[in-house]
Amino acid sequence: MDTLMNILTEIDSSIVWDQENALIDDRMLDSFDIISLVSEMEGAFDIEIEASEMVPDNFNSVEAMRKMIVRLQGS
Fold first, then answer.
1. Which N-terminal stretch is annotated as signal sequence (predicted)?
2. CATH of domain 2-73
3. Residue 7: pLDDT band by 50, 70, 90 thresholds?
């Protein structure tokens, strides 16, 4: 998922995304970042991220985001 990594790097290039497991819990992403991220992900992956999906478990790590994307693409 190079596309996801590109999106994340555009949001903040100072974060080593693959090494973080608490992006939300440690407040590395703020609400504006999440809104930008959701918008970019929806467009790039042709998915719709409902409000119920916007929980820390889905955004705390790159792996969690990948899993959510795959799950939503299968819906």
1. none
2. 1.10.1200.10
3. very high
